[in-house]
Backbone:
């Protein structure tokens, strides 16, 4: 009986770890936070994308320095098609 209960505790702990990892990856997928672990775990975020988005928006409103700072779009560097090469 004791071993059986131990297995159930291990499975429950593993489920909690998987939920934590899923939460981190859902936050990472939004691309809004530099470090997806900055948003504390909340099981409600796993089921409701709107609650997750609202929590991220709220966190960034309170702590804007946690936002992702990667440049997005054309920043004027690298090869650009359709542009004529000029040698100066």
Residues:
């Amino acid at each position: 009986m004791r071993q059986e209960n131990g297995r159930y505790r291990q499975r429950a702990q593993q489920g909690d770890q998987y939920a934590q990892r899923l939460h981190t990856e859902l936050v990472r997928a939004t691309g809004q936070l530099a470090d997806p672990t900055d948003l504390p775990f909340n099981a409600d975020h796993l089921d409701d994308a709107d609650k997750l988005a609202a929590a991220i928006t709220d966190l960034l409103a309170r702590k804007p320095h946690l936002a992702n700072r990667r440049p997005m779009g054309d920043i004027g560097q690298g090869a650009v098609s359709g542009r004529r090469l000029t040698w100066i």
Notes: The mean pLDDT is 85.
